[in-house]
Design goal:
Layout: H1 9-28, H2 32-53, H3 63-68, H4 80-88, H5 111-129, H6 137-140
Helix pairs in contact: 1-2, 1-5, 2-5, 4-5
Protein backbone atom coordinates (compact mmCIF):
# COMPACT_ATOMS: atom_id res chain seq x y z
CA UNK A 1 0.00 0.00 0.00
CA UNK A 2 1.39 3.39 -1.03
CA UNK A 3 1.02 6.20 1.49
CA UNK A 4 1.29 9.71 0.06
CA UNK A 5 2.38 12.30 2.57
CA UNK A 6 1.09 15.85 2.38
CA UNK A 7 3.68 18.37 1.20
CA UNK A 8 4.49 20.34 4.37
CA UNK A 9 7.50 22.11 2.87
CA UNK A 10 5.67 25.44 2.90
CA UNK A 11 5.10 25.14 6.65
CA UNK A 12 8.76 24.37 7.26
CA UNK A 13 9.93 27.31 5.15
CA UNK A 14 7.50 29.73 6.77
CA UNK A 15 8.84 28.58 10.15
CA UNK A 16 12.38 29.19 8.89
CA UNK A 17 11.42 32.76 8.00
CA UNK A 18 9.83 33.25 11.42
CA UNK A 19 12.92 31.83 13.16
CA UNK A 20 15.10 34.27 11.21
CA UNK A 21 12.85 37.11 12.38
CA UNK A 22 13.21 35.85 15.95
CA UNK A 23 17.00 35.87 15.52
CA UNK A 24 16.90 39.48 14.35
CA UNK A 25 14.65 40.49 17.25
CA UNK A 26 16.92 38.73 19.76
CA UNK A 27 20.01 40.47 18.35
CA UNK A 28 18.31 43.85 18.59
CA UNK A 29 17.49 43.14 22.25
CA UNK A 30 21.08 42.10 23.01
CA UNK A 31 20.17 38.42 23.41
CA UNK A 32 23.01 37.29 21.20
CA UNK A 33 23.07 33.65 22.30
CA UNK A 34 19.40 33.30 21.38
CA UNK A 35 19.99 35.13 18.10
CA UNK A 36 22.68 32.60 17.21
CA UNK A 37 20.48 29.65 18.14
CA UNK A 38 17.46 31.02 16.25
CA UNK A 39 19.66 31.61 13.19
CA UNK A 40 20.71 27.95 13.35
CA UNK A 41 17.06 26.94 13.60
CA UNK A 42 16.13 29.10 10.61
CA UNK A 43 18.80 27.43 8.47
CA UNK A 44 17.81 23.95 9.64
CA UNK A 45 14.10 24.52 8.93
CA UNK A 46 14.80 25.98 5.49
CA UNK A 47 16.96 23.07 4.38
CA UNK A 48 14.42 20.58 5.72
CA UNK A 49 11.76 22.44 3.70
CA UNK A 50 13.83 21.93 0.58
CA UNK A 51 14.30 18.23 1.34
CA UNK A 52 10.56 17.84 1.81
CA UNK A 53 9.82 19.75 -1.38
CA UNK A 54 12.13 17.36 -3.21
CA UNK A 55 10.18 14.42 -1.81
CA UNK A 56 12.87 13.47 0.71
CA UNK A 57 12.70 13.14 4.45
CA UNK A 58 15.46 14.80 6.47
CA UNK A 59 16.28 14.16 10.12
CA UNK A 60 18.83 15.66 12.45
CA UNK A 61 20.03 19.10 13.41
CA UNK A 62 23.44 19.32 11.74
CA UNK A 63 22.93 21.95 9.06
CA UNK A 64 26.02 21.15 6.99
CA UNK A 65 25.02 17.47 6.85
CA UNK A 66 21.48 18.41 5.80
CA UNK A 67 23.01 20.44 2.96
CA UNK A 68 25.28 17.54 2.00
CA UNK A 69 22.29 15.19 1.86
CA UNK A 70 20.59 17.20 -0.90
CA UNK A 71 20.45 15.46 -4.29
CA UNK A 72 23.77 15.62 -6.19
CA UNK A 73 22.30 17.95 -8.80
CA UNK A 74 21.46 20.68 -6.28
CA UNK A 75 24.34 23.08 -6.69
CA UNK A 76 25.13 24.20 -3.14
CA UNK A 77 27.33 27.33 -3.33
CA UNK A 78 30.93 26.61 -2.33
CA UNK A 79 31.07 28.55 0.94
CA UNK A 80 27.61 27.56 2.18
CA UNK A 81 28.68 24.29 3.87
CA UNK A 82 31.33 26.15 5.90
CA UNK A 83 28.79 28.80 6.89
CA UNK A 84 26.47 25.98 7.93
CA UNK A 85 29.28 24.59 10.11
CA UNK A 86 29.50 27.95 11.89
CA UNK A 87 25.77 27.77 12.58
CA UNK A 88 26.12 24.17 13.78
CA UNK A 89 28.43 25.40 16.52
CA UNK A 90 25.50 27.41 17.93
CA UNK A 91 23.09 24.50 18.37
CA UNK A 92 23.98 23.41 21.92
CA UNK A 93 26.37 25.83 23.67
CA UNK A 94 24.15 28.87 23.12
CA UNK A 95 21.61 27.34 25.51
CA UNK A 96 23.40 25.12 28.03
CA UNK A 97 25.80 26.28 30.75
CA UNK A 98 27.88 23.12 30.36
CA UNK A 99 28.55 24.06 26.73
CA UNK A 100 31.45 26.24 27.90
CA UNK A 101 34.14 25.72 30.56
CA UNK A 102 32.60 28.49 32.66
CA UNK A 103 29.99 31.20 32.56
CA UNK A 104 26.39 31.33 31.42
CA UNK A 105 25.78 30.93 27.68
CA UNK A 106 24.74 34.55 27.18
CA UNK A 107 28.19 35.69 28.39
CA UNK A 108 29.91 34.01 25.41
CA UNK A 109 28.09 35.66 22.50
CA UNK A 110 27.98 39.19 21.20
CA UNK A 111 27.11 41.32 18.21
CA UNK A 112 29.78 39.82 15.97
CA UNK A 113 28.52 36.26 16.49
CA UNK A 114 24.83 37.08 16.19
CA UNK A 115 25.24 39.32 13.13
CA UNK A 116 27.33 36.66 11.40
CA UNK A 117 24.90 33.89 12.30
CA UNK A 118 21.94 35.87 10.99
CA UNK A 119 23.77 36.66 7.75
CA UNK A 120 24.72 32.99 7.22
CA UNK A 121 21.18 31.84 7.95
CA UNK A 122 19.82 34.47 5.55
CA UNK A 123 22.15 33.14 2.83
CA UNK A 124 20.87 29.61 3.41
CA UNK A 125 17.25 30.76 3.22
CA UNK A 126 18.04 32.57 -0.04
CA UNK A 127 19.68 29.44 -1.43
CA UNK A 128 16.58 27.43 -0.58
CA UNK A 129 14.30 30.14 -1.96
CA UNK A 130 16.18 30.16 -5.29
CA UNK A 131 17.29 26.53 -5.47
CA UNK A 132 15.30 26.00 -8.62
CA UNK A 133 12.58 24.07 -6.86
CA UNK A 134 9.95 26.14 -8.63
CA UNK A 135 11.71 29.45 -9.04
CA UNK A 136 10.71 32.24 -6.71
CA UNK A 137 9.36 31.28 -3.30
CA UNK A 138 6.08 33.01 -4.10
CA UNK A 139 5.51 30.37 -6.76
CA UNK A 140 6.72 27.62 -4.41
CA UNK A 141 4.35 28.75 -1.71
CA UNK A 142 1.39 28.37 -4.02
CA UNK A 143 -0.37 25.03 -3.96
CA UNK A 144 1.73 23.63 -6.78
CA UNK A 145 2.41 19.92 -7.29
CA UNK A 146 5.57 18.19 -6.18
CA UNK A 147 8.60 18.62 -8.43
CA UNK A 148 8.86 16.25 -11.38
CA UNK A 149 11.91 17.24 -13.47
CA UNK A 150 15.33 18.80 -13.02
CA UNK A 151 16.03 22.47 -13.71
CA UNK A 152 19.23 23.84 -15.26
CA UNK A 153 20.97 23.93 -11.87
CA UNK A 154 20.07 20.34 -11.12
CA UNK A 155 17.39 20.79 -8.48
CA UNK A 156 13.91 19.48 -9.09
CA UNK A 157 11.18 21.57 -10.69
Amino acid sequence: MLVVMADRSQDWFRQAEDDLGHAQDARERGRHNWACFAAHQAAEMAIKALHLRLGQDAWGHVVHKLLAALPPGCAVPGSLPDKARVLDAYYVPTRYANGHPEGAPFEHYGEIQSSGAIEYAREILEFVRHAGVLGAMSIWLSSSPRPTSRSANGCWT
